[in-house]
Amino acid sequence: MTDDEYINSEILDEHFRTPRNFGVLKDCTVEIIESNPTCGDTIVVDLKINGETIEDVKYITRGCSISTAAASMLSETIIGKTLKEVENLSKAEVLSNIGLRLGPARERCALISYDAVQKGIKKHLKGGKEAEHF
Amino acid sequence: MTDDEYINSEILDEHFRTPRNFGVLKDCTVEIIESNPTCGDTIVVDLKINGETIEDVKYITRGCSISTAAASMLSETIIGKTLKEVENLSKAEVLSNIGLRLGPARERCALISYDAVQKGIKKHLKGGKEAEHF
Amino acid sequence: MESNEIREHFPIFKRFGREGIVYLDNAATTQKPTEVIEAVVDFYTNYCSNVHRGVYRLGEEATEKFNKARENIGNFIGAKDNEIVFVRNTTEALNLLANSLGSKLGEGDEIILSNSEHHSNIVPWQMLRERKNVKIKFINSKHTETIKPDDVADLITKKTRIVSLTACSNILGNINDMKEITNVVHDSGAIMIVDGAQSVPHMPVKVKDIGCDYLAFSGHKMLGPTGIGCLFGREESLENLPPFLGGGEMIRTVTKEGFTCEEIPLRFEAGTPNIEGAIGLSAAVNFLKRIGMENVRQHEKELITYTMKQEEENNIKGLVSYGTRNMDRRAGIYAFNIGEIPKFDRENLSDGNISLKVQAIHPHDLSSVADRTYGVELRSGHHCAMPMIQDLGVTAATRASFYVYNSRDDVDRLFDAIKASVKRFGL
Amino acid sequence: MESNEIREHFPIFKRFGREGIVYLDNAATTQKPTEVIEAVVDFYTNYCSNVHRGVYRLGEEATEKFNKARENIGNFIGAKDNEIVFVRNTTEALNLLANSLGSKLGEGDEIILSNSEHHSNIVPWQMLRERKNVKIKFINSKHTETIKPDDVADLITKKTRIVSLTACSNILGNINDMKEITNVVHDSGAIMIVDGAQSVPHMPVKVKDIGCDYLAFSGHKMLGPTGIGCLFGREESLENLPPFLGGGEMIRTVTKEGFTCEEIPLRFEAGTPNIEGAIGLSAAVNFLKRIGMENVRQHEKELITYTMKQEEENNIKGLVSYGTRNMDRRAGIYAFNIGEIPKFDRENLSDGNISLKVQAIHPHDLSSVADRTYGVELRSGHHCAMPMIQDLGVTAATRASFYVYNSRDDVDRLFDAIKASVKRFGL
Ligand SMILES: Cc1ncc(COP(=O)(O)O)c(C=O)c1O
Ligand SMILES: Cc1ncc(COP(=O)(O)O)c(C=O)c1O
């Protein structure tokens, strides 16, 4: 990440300051709470799954700009996609959507929402419904 | 230790090839078995203590030249000495009697008989008589 | 030596230059002076060998240097050489104790810790609790207060077996009076363990003064290599401590039926040790001795005092900082937030309650900006002290921590960097 | 690369010169090439920082290099990066297993070892036996024989939980067929642990080929620094393994009430790791890759074959050597005696029985003379394998062990040195 990228990134700012799909999904199919051991940030992701399709996503995080913006972008990416499509989404794609070169610690920030969504799908497929407490 | 000292030391040779007081003391007051973790050598030291005085010492070892010669020299040093005198004998004195500069591993060889004698005296003072098995 | 002169000994600062880098993550790990690097390279180049058993010249030289290192490091904290056990780090030292002392504890026995402990002085005891059903009690001090002997006395009961506390908090910088605390603990008959990870590198520490049974510290936090640390134990304490790891070097004899142990401290050092680590740490100790630990402490006290002054003068909106304001009891550690992000609380996160716009800059963002604008290297996160972070009611904090090579200029740059992050992420 | 060319990379040989030193204690530890030394110095000089958490540039670089090291070392033995746990050495890896696997064992469960194990693959299990009352069974092979799958099968019962064996004996040089043995062990449902301390440095080792659950090895025996080693565990195996040491880095969350664990492999790495150790070991792996592990094995096989030939030709009176004579199954390790000093036996040492004049040269004397006459560095003693020394019926042995920089000339000098010691101490 060069100074300019991080300091001036408009897309980062956009999504960080007005994150899309922020909030709670009352009628979610599955909820996942994931925490980032690097800094103790926590994210709650609610997925509404209908058959094979992710119909809606909402999340709450008070993480850093990168984890918030990454969650926002990811939510836009996955709404309307099938479970298979989302499962096939790679970490590299998620990182490239953000468009910043990130070091290993900030990469974890960028991927916490991704990890949560993947775990959510796994949990759904296993038939789990209750929220996971930590 | 220079090459010459070790390779040519006459006193080392003397004591190694014809160790003094080698053997078993049937009527010993205390017996100690001590082993050298560096190479697994074992020494058996028998002390005959009368009141405050070490009347006789014998030992068996199949250690290296240094441990054998050191035991031989030490046995000559301590016969007839009082327990206090022997307890006050320092490692440095024992090493200087041998007259070779030794590295840390070989120093342990030179001191195994000394350690055994010191433990023997402690054991005697505590009233122990039986041999210690390992 | 002045901090400028000291910096000359560190190749990394030469490389990056005065403007390039302001390293303020010294509580995590420190930079290494040429003297330490050369000691390590000297081992590889001139007498590389295993220790303890070799009767050839390289082996003898390595063993002698290794033994001297132990003696020198022991001497640094006023301990005999056989009271120094080489371990990987503070964490391993505390695990060793939790296991070896723990093997003698039973159900219901009590261990006292505090809410400002590093995870490495919490988790090993929680793991012991899983095995032995012991009870763990926490001293809950306010962040502005050091731990007082009374705080300990209040929790001690007849069942208290172990009290394990940090001499200096790695997040608050609070320096606790371990001598007085040890007295209270010993009066009750319990064992006193001191986590010295943040005290031994930063102030004069003499184990006989403190009187504690055990003290743990890490080489990499005091100019030495990573992978080496020490457990000090009083001779009588170590003599009675069961071994932890088994293997080569720590035994006297092994048969198929069983084993007998070596003398202390080797009894606790199974396998080939970190030889160049010990030798490098000894070189680090020599470097610190040349500066003088009184001077190290004085220097850091001046820097943290100056930091407080700068905090006041800059008067940055939303800035909150933690730790005691008594500079006599405050190490060179400065943890702060620009606005506080409240700790995660599921219950409070129902739809009606969501306030997205927390008036705060996340510590990760602050650190990244500080790095990218002024080359100021800060740590952000929970600092391996989540219980204290929780008690502060926040999600994370940013921390600057000083060492011998830092200067007032570095503190000025720290505040420049904070202001830059406010400019970038302030709401 | 030829051994002469390889030697050029090792500063220690330049320092002592061709005539100065013949280093033949490679089974204990190896010398370090410039490439490894430079990797360590590079860390200190250019990107010294703690790993995992720093969001500033030094921290990011250190973390990236540390992660790459793990990947590279894993790749060397055909493992994924999350299957590599960094530990201090083989000894710690085996203790980790004895503790973490051991926590799931109960009274009467059986563990199979062999009489040619290093103490570090015996004592941790004996310590587990003290805690859990498990049963340890020994395969008792003759020194001339490698361990056969049938030897293992003979001891396996329904209660066998763990089989832990060395892939190559550090005293005999016998190379066991771990793949076939693993098959037998897995058929019985037990866990297979391989002590790879003497195999990973000396021959191609691929964990997927062997099929074992765990493999332990030490960096310092393969051109890397001391203080760093690896435990390989199959992903599924590690996932199910309880943690061993607790503290920073290995946790995900800590509260006063309890903790949750990080993913593998970090779950097993509590506290600040040996960062430059991992980076140095990765450089060592690169060096070995350049030579090619097939070539390493071939070179050592040639040296040990040549040693056998020299043994025959020199025909030294009283010389006895140990290990298999099948060179396909023999590593570059040569343990021998000039006359055998019988093992200590209190019963036999009554007055009548004392024969002082054992027709033998004590290994310590042999090593000292070899060092002082020809600069030949040999190890003498029990080689941390007392049970095998006992089974050989002796007190100690002398050992020469080869590596990539040794040559036939070194073997010639070895025999010159043996003859010098016969001249000095022969009876
Ligand atoms: C077969 C074997 N296992 C284990 C070890 C112990 O290695 P470390 O001391 O590096 O833990 C050794 C080293 O001598 C060995 O040869
Ligand atoms: C107070 C305290 N204790 C323990 C530790 C753990 O040190 P290490 O990671 O070297 O084991 C630290 C390091 O952050 C610390 O600050």
Describe this structure in words.
The complex is a heterotetramer, with two copies of chain A (about 130 residues) and two copies of chain C (about 425 residues). Chain A is α+β, with helices and mostly antiparallel strands and about 130 residues long. Chain A has a single domain (about 5-125), classed as Alpha-Beta Complex (Sufe protein. Chain: A), CATH 3.90.1010. Helix content of chain A is about 50%, strand content about 20%. Chain A contains six helices and three strands. Chain A has a three-stranded antiparallel sheet, covered by helices on one side. In chain A, a hairpin with a 2-residue loop joins strand 2 (about 40-50) and strand 3. In chain A, helix 2 crosses helix 3 (about 65-80), helix 3 packs across helix 5 and helix 5 (about 90-100) packs across helix 6. The longest helix of chain A has 22 residues, at about 105-125. Mean pLDDT of chain A is about 85; it is low at about 130-134. Chain C has about 425 residues and is an alpha/beta fold. Chain C folds into two domains: about 5-30 and about 290-425, Aspartate Aminotransferase, domain 1 (Alpha-Beta Complex); about 35-290, Aspartate Aminotransferase, domain 2, CATH 3.40.640. Chain C contains 15 helices and 15 strands. In chain C, the strands form four sheets. Chain C has a seven-stranded mixed sheet, with helices on both faces. In chain C, strands 11-12-15-14 form a four-stranded antiparallel sheet, with helices on one face. In chain C, strands 1-13 form a two-stranded parallel ribbon. In chain C, strand 6 (about 190-195), helix 9 and strand 7 (about 215-220) form a beta-alpha-beta unit. In chain C, helix 3 (about 35-45) runs antiparallel to helix 11 (about 275-290), helix 12 runs parallel beside helix 15 and helix 13 (about 365-375) crosses helix 15. The interface between C and D is large, with 91 and 91 residues. One pyridoxal-5'-phosphate sits at the interface of chains D and C.
